[in-house]
Known about the structure:
Number of helices of chain A: 6
Distance between the termini of chain A: 59 Å
Number of domains of chain B: 2
Strand order of the largest sheet of chain A: 5-4-3-6-7
Structural class of chain B: mainly alpha
Strand content of chain B: under 5%
Oligomer: heterodimer
CATH topology of the largest domain in chain B: Helicase, Ruva Protein, domain 3
CATH architecture of the largest domain in chain B: Orthogonal Bundle
CATH architecture of chain A: 3-Layer(aba) Sandwich
Distance between the termini of chain B: 72 Å
Amino acid sequence: MKKKILISPIIVFFLILFVFFYLLIIDRNPSELPSVLINKKVPAFETKSLLENKIFVSPNEFRNETTLVNFFATWCKPCRDEHPYLIKLSNEKELKIIGINYKDDSKKAIKWLEKLGNPYSNVLVDSNASLGIDWGVYGLPETFIVNSNGIIKYRLVGPITKKNYHAFVLKVKEVEK
Amino acid sequence: MQRILLAILFYLMTSQIVGINCYSVEPDEFLQNPKKELRARNISKNVRCLVCQNQSIDDSSAPLAKDLRILIRKKIEQDNSDEEIYNFLTERYGDFILLNPPFKISTLFLWILPFVFLGIGIFVIFLHNNKSKKLDYSK
């Protein structure tokens, strides 16, 4: 009986050690937050379009097809890394992608898109981060998958990369079903 | 002479420390009305900066923290109540944005577990005491 009592703290210690070690080695980002907007309607907003002289009115434009909403800026380095994958998504998968140019210089953004190519069906201007706050954005880039009923189904914080591209495409397909 | 130098050095060091501790709210953000400004400060102290995550937006100099501070002041100017402002933020960023988590079903364990552990602790000590009372040390 006494021996058992002596051993139990050691067992508990190793159990805790195991849990910590497990959390350390699995692929996860502890500062990543789940979005509270999942399964909710897209926020209502009105804003200017960067390339066209038109006003974009929010829930109305999210009908009929699955849409990606991508927050980006020219000052954001990971956005540049992500850009080729957005072009791939728009060309190969023929996805509708709406870009939101977050706290950026519009002239720079236009030049950036001319140079790197434009995967977006529409680019919206968010000069004072108000759209970013409405969508719960806290770090660029962020990409949302919105289904054909205008419901947000998924959010990716951070860039689409070679590593997560296929997983992301699968997520899109899941939403399209 | 040495003492004066030391005093100057000490002053420089401590003023530096104070400088580091001062808040990140910039003067151009302040509201004219001191009462409203105080409300804004109190709300900001309870709102987490999601970029640095262990700081409030009142302490953080991250751009998002600044945007949120300005937004809170705008909402106060528009006569929104504190609760309306907190609701606005949690609707977009979740309860995680509050540094003081609310008491809800999803946070029940968070609030109750410390008391459960306290109960277990008291129980263990009680058992231990009872056992040692039964032992007869005189033999």
